[in-house]
Design a protein that fits this description.
The complex is a heterodimer. Chain A is built from 17 helices and no strands. Chain A has one domain: Cytochrome c oxidase-like, subunit I domain (Cytochrome C Oxidase, Chain A, Up-down Bundle). Chain A is globular. Chain A has helices at about 5-15, 25-30, 35-60, 70-105, 115-135, 160-190, 200-235, 245-265, 265-280, 290-300, 315-330, 330-345, 355-375, 380-385, 390-420, 425-450, 465-495. Chain B is about 75% helix and about 0% strand. Chain B has 8 helices and no strands. Chain B starts with 16 loop residues before the first helix and ends with a helix. The chains are: A mainly alpha, B mainly alpha. Chains A and B meet through helix 1, helix 2, helix 5, helix 6 and helix 7 of A and helix 1, helix 3 and helix 7 of B.
């Protein structure tokens, strides 16, 4: 019926195929998935630097025992806002940015399914974080109750700016839900003919499942912050035993969101590594379908393990056992994944380009984080580990050397596709080795001080932890500085310096994204390719 | 079907509305936050004004964005594939709404099954009861909290029952209107869509009457302990959703009067109808778990 109008449109677009709108409006009003992806990625990187600066404050205070640089209330604000920024402002938007750029290219779609809503999802984020950061400069300071905002810390004992925290989380959630709806609909509805589910690249698969998790749990987070708001300002007692509520109920609701949330931050990382390892091993991914099923199993299990964050709250023993065993079950599909990555490399023609180096670091270091997670899952011993630096070591191994390293791997892997030029490999090597060494100096000793009993979120510590903390802080500063190398590299790349690259970029790379020219034209796959 | 796959997917040009929408949410979040803080402190400030400004900008954005959307739809730029994107998007949005209510139902179930009985000494919590509030008795509805706040329980008969019947009937009339649209019976469509809107308004009116009765005659308030909390938060958020649904129905009515929608081109109508059925299902759960049980 409407083929005629379509043809006209098609020709129009073809004439100025690579025509980009110019000026600031290009970025404010854009509907282009590549522009929005770029916006997300730069936003995430800026938030990563801001959140990182807060971590530097924390490490400076902890460099020596005693209180010397900041007051304890400000220290608490730093730990809280560092966590909130890194989770909601850095890791999640970075993955969304990668999804925006790559999912349409990988499935042969002309754009995301709902391009205008896509732009709305992005532009909410800078405003949401502006509100959060503003609250730091207001009377009483910003949120100081930890990124998990446990009641009654966030209700009875918090300051009034909690209201701003609540509403900024509300709009962040709206952004995430809209972003996730967009990804899920794009994947379900926009695949090129012949791109069946079991032919989809794993990055696409992992994002499909991540998007489902996001839509399922972000509304629960919205409910949790709403209850905190009404408890604090409108006299409800959801988390107050005097009114028949229960502070532990907060933790149940929060972690029902929170545990799927940690998989939201790692499943796309699994997808990235599953793209990169086959490319540089010059082999097909070992066990493709088992990877898909493992991802789905991890996602489903994530809904029934939340209370392993709450072993010390006095739950009935039956519940503790259930959550312990359910949690340990997750190591099975996770083990499948690690096995498959290693098996992919087995007898492969491996070359050690930068994305592969980050992926290998990911596999080893994420596994360390996974194993300490397994230790934490064991209820009786968790009573000792709970709220110590061991927990901090665990989740920084999975989130920094896991999620963040995978984002860096992905950036190096696809950057030449985005800019058309090879990035500065010397700088990249410096970035990799400095990051790798400093990140381990930063987080590995935390296991020991944690096992020895150093509590987290406290600005002071006992004298016997002084030596370890000095080294941890030095590692922290070095890791922070190493990221400036990355910043320099990215600025150079965005100025289009470097050798031009071919469409395929890496000689083992396979997939639709490597069939479009480098740099990828402004509009791609306006007519869908046919996938054999 | 396979030919439709090749029909060109409509990718809209640049649009100012999403950015305007982000500004609106910024003003609303900042305004609401400041408003709440000022309310608690009892100070004057511009929170309320900012919140109102946010609403106005949001309204402008919605009108502008939907105008674009309707113009595109009426000029036939929407392919079948785009229609599927919209329908899937709406379904996932409704799923997210379900999960939002799930959080509050979760709080209700936790309070009833765990928190309140434990405060009364159930399971291995005899000492909790003995040490904290030895005279506290665990009953549901919790008409006397451990802290001593008393209230009355809302019965399920009377207004809540009428409201249940009203919403269930409105779901049927919405469906009849939808079937009439698909068969091209415009008169029947207008009639039943109109009835649905009236039923929605009646529901909201009775809900307001019930709230006034609860506050003035029963002493059942938002801050009357966990029973009042869950009662007002669940029915309140449901009421907001019915309000939104009714507004959507009214807009659909306006578009029907202008001659919009055909059996092939009716996404907005279908989405509104789905949304209406969704608020109906939530109400049935509310009626069972908040009022009856």
């Amino acid at each position: 019926m409407s083929t005629v109008t379509n043809d006209i449109h098609h020709d129009e677009h073809h004439d100025h195929h690579d025509h980009k709108p110019s000026g600031i409006k290009r970025w404010l009003y854009t509907t282009n998935h590549k522009d929005i992806g770029t916006l997300y990625l730069w936003f995430a990187f800026i938030m990563f630097l801001i959140g990182g600066a807060m971590a530097m404050v924390i490490r400076a205070e902890l460099f020596q025992p005693g209180l010397q640089i900041v007051d304890p209330n400000f220290f608490n604000q730093m730990t809280t806002v560092h966590g909130l920024i890194m989770v909601f402002g850095a890791v999640m938007p970075a993955f969304t940015g990668l999804a925006n750029w790559m999912v349409p290219l990988m499935i042969g779609a002309p754009d995301m399914a709902l391009p205008r809503m896509n732009n709305w999802s992005f532009w909410i984020l800078p405003f949401a974080f502006l509100i959060l950061l503003m609250s730091l400069f207001m009377e009483g300071g910003g949120p100081a109750f930890g990124w998990t905002f446990y009641a009654p810390l966030s209700t009875t004992y918090s300051n009034d700016t909690t209201a701003l925290f609540v509403f900024s989380v509300h709009i962040m959630g709206a952004s995430s839900i809209m972003g996730a709806i967009n990804v899920i609909v794009t994947i379900l509805n926009m695949r090129a003919p012949g791109m069946t589910f079991m032919k989809m690249p794993l990055f696409v698969w992992t994002w499909l499942i991540t998007a489902f998790l996001l839509i399922a749990v972000m509304p629960v987070l919205a409910g949790a912050v709403t209850m905190v708001l009404t408890d604090k300002f409108f006299g409800t007692s959801f988390f107050d035993a005097a009114g028949g509520g229960d502070p532990v109920m907060f933790q149940h609701i929060f972690w029902f969101f929170g545990h799927p949330e940690v998989y939201i931050m790692i499943l796309p990382a699994f997808g990235i590594v599953s793209q990169i390892v086959p490319t540089f091993s010059r082999k097909k991914l070992f066990g493709y379908s088992s990877m898909v099923y493992a991802t789905a199993s991890i996602a489903l299990l994530s809904f029934i393990v939340w209370a392993h964050h709450m072993f010390t709250t006095g739950m009935p023993v039956g519940a503790e056992l259930f959550f312990m065993f359910a949690t340990m079950l997750i190591s099975v599909p996770t083990g499948v994944k690690v096995f498959n990555w290693v098996a992919t490399m087995w007898r492969g023609a491996i070359s050690f380009e930068i994305p592969m180096m980050f992926s290998l670091a990911f596999i080893v270091l994420f596994t360390i984080g996974g194993l300490s997670g397994l230790m934490l899952a064991i209820t009786p011993v968790d009573f000792q580990y709970h709220d110590t630096y061991f927990v901090v070591a665990h989740f920084h191994y999975v989130l920094v050397t896991g999620a963040v390293f995978s984002i860096m791997a992905a950036t190096y892997y696809w950057l030449p596709k985005w800019t058309g030029k090879m990035f500065d490999i010397t700088l990249a090597k410096w970035h990799f080795w400095c990051s790798l060494i400093s990140v381990n100096l930063l987080f590995f000793p935390m296991h020991f001080v944690g096992l020895a009993g150093m509590p987290r979120r406290i600005p002071d510590y006992a004298l016997q932890f002084a030596d370890f903390n000095k080294w941890i802080s030095l590692g922290g500063f070095a890791f922070g500085l190493s990221q400036l190398i990355f910043l320099a590299l990215l600025i150079k790349a965005c100025r289009k310096k470097g050798e031009p690259v071919s469409a395929q970029v890496w000689d083992g790379a396979e997939g639709l994204e490597w069939e479009v020219p480098s740099p990828a034209p402004y509009h791609t796959f306006e007519t869908p390719p046919v996938v054999k | 079907m396979s030919e439709q796959q090749y029909e060109k997917y409509y990718v809209p040009d640049q649009s100012p509305w999403p950015f305007v929408g982000a500004v609106a949410l910024f003003l609303m979040a900042l305004g609401a936050g400041n408003f709440v803080i000022e309310m608690k402190k009892g100070t004057d400030g511009n929170g309320a004004l900012m919140l109102l400004a946010g609403f106005v900008v949001l309204l402008v954005m919605l009108v502008g964005w939907f105008k674009n959307q309707i113009d595109e739809s009426m000029s036939g730029m929407h392919s079948a594939q785009l229609g599927r994107s919209y329908r899937q998007g709406m379904s996932w949005f409704i799923f997210s709404e379900v999960m939002f209510f799930f959080a509050f139902f979760g709080a209700l179930f936790y309070a009833r099954v765990i928190a309140v009985p434990w405060l009364g000494g159930a399971s291995n919590n005899a000492m909790t009861n003995e040490v904290l509030w030895p005279t506290f008795e665990a009953i549901w509805p919790l008409v006397e909290t451990p802290g001593g706040t008393t209230t009355e329980a809302m019965p399920w008969t009377g207004l809540p029952l009428y409201n249940t019947i009203i919403l269930l009937v409105s779901s049927v009339t919405a469906h009849i209107a939808h079937v009439a649209l698909e068969k091209g019976e415009r008169g029947k469509l207008k009639l039943f869509l109109g009835i649905t809107i009236l039923l929605g308004c009646t529901f909201l009116y009775l809900q307001v009457v019930e709230y006034i009765h609860a506050y003035q005659d029963m002493g059942l308030k938002l801050d009357s302990g966990i029973y009042g909390n869950t009662f007002f938060m669940l029915t309140g958020f449901h009421g907001l959703h019915v309000t939104l649904g009714t507004l959507m129905l009214i807009i659909m009515f306006g578009r029907v009067l202008k001659g919009h929608f055909s059996p092939d081109n009716q996404f907005a109508f279908q989405a509104t109808s789905w949304y209406w059925h969704f608020v109906d299902v939530v109400w049935v759960c509310l009626f069972v778990f908040v009022y009856i049980l």
